[in-house]
């Protein structure tokens, strides 16, 4: 008889994988995809629109930090572009990962032109985060992300 793991088993596997990876690689070099792979728990296996909304909620939870420091992905990409180092050529990768992920979610949702829609989604998110930081106004981030969530409902 095959025993299906309970959700608490998944949670424990995720926690243990995260602790192990963060210890070995450090916090900033450990991704959710790495943790999911290490724990054998699928990442984002739910409704693609729900995944996109969860992404927005995650960013909204950090709205005060975004207002203070900006977006970590956007800031890293900008700073890498300014450097004369081997990392300069990889600057686009910091945001391309998000664009590709969003395009995949829109593809799974059956949206026409998923690459373009994914790019537009991330562009809107990044623009909102940049303005939130420039104006130091976390309320605007929450308001605009609410509008983006409503737009997702129309797709």
Rg, please?
17 Å
Give the SSE order as H and E letters. HHHHHHHH
> Major sheet: size, sense and barrel closure?
none
Uncertain ranges:
1-5
Q: How many beta-strand runs?
A: 0
Percentage of β-strand residues: under 5%
For the termini, the CA-CA separation is 42 Å
* Coarse structural class: mainly alpha
| Shape category | globular
Average pLDDT taken over every residue: 86
Helix content: over 70%
Question: Count of helices?
Answer: 8
Write the layout of secondary structure elements.
Layout: H1 7-25, H2 32-39, H3 48-61, H4 63-69, H5 72-82, H6 91-108, H7 114-135, H8 138-154
Could you explain the architecture of this structure?
The chain has eight helices and no strands. It has helices at residues 7-25, 32-39, 48-61, 63-69, 72-82, 91-108, 114-135, 138-154.
């Amino acid at each position: 008889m095959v025993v299906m793991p309970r959700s608490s088993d998944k949670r424990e596997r995720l926690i243990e994988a995260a602790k192990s990876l963060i210890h070995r690689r450090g916090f900033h070099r450990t991704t959710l995809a790495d943790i999911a792979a290490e724990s054998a728990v699928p990442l984002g296996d739910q409704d693609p629109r729900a995944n996109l909304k969860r992404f927005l909620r995650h960013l909204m939870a950090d709205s005060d930090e975004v207002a203070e420091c900006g977006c970590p992905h956007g800031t890293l990409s900008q700073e890498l572009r300014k450097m004369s180092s081997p990392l300069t050529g990889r600057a686009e990768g910091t945001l391309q990962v998000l664009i590709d992920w969003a395009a995949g979610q829109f593809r799974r949702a059956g949206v026409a032109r998923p690459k373009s829609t994914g790019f537009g989604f991330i562009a809107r998110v990044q623009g909102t985060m940049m303005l939130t930081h420039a104006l130091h106004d976390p309320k605007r981030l929450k308001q605009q992300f609410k509008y983006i969530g409503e737009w997702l409902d129309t797709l």
